[in-house]
Design a protein that fits this description.
Keywords: Membrane, Transmembrane, Transmembrane helix. It is elongated, with a radius of gyration of 22 Å. The strands form two sheets. A four-stranded antiparallel beta sheet has the order 1-2-3-4. The protein has a two-stranded antiparallel ribbon with strand order 5-6. It has one domain. The N and C termini lie far apart (86 Å). A hairpin with a 3-residue loop joins strand 5 and strand 6. It is 36% helix and 32% strand. The chain is an alpha+beta fold and 119 residues long.
Length: 119
Amino acid sequence: MSLEPGDIIVLVIAAFALVVGICLRLLSGKLDRRRVEYFVNGRGDKLLSIQWAPFGPWALGERSGVYQIRYLDKEGCEHQAYVKTSLINGVWFSEDRIIRRPSPGTLPGNTPNPESQAQ
């Protein structure tokens, strides 16, 4: 079974399309992560982690652009949430819940409060 010149062209085009698709997906993921990071940090919070969540909320409609994040808010509470992001719609939060509160005597960001230690 030999390949005809037309078959080779089709294979080359298919391989090229596959490589371009993978590159675009990787770039899209990087831009999504950066968009979420800027959004969270822009609110005065601190992003701790971000993971792609293909089966999170919105999974029926879209799998790309959905992430599970953990972040510290200004009061030092650690949150876990799902976010959906896109270039046009920005960043949307879902199921944002506090998973850990700072212990008494700590300042926002979990730094020890010197006044509480002096007592």
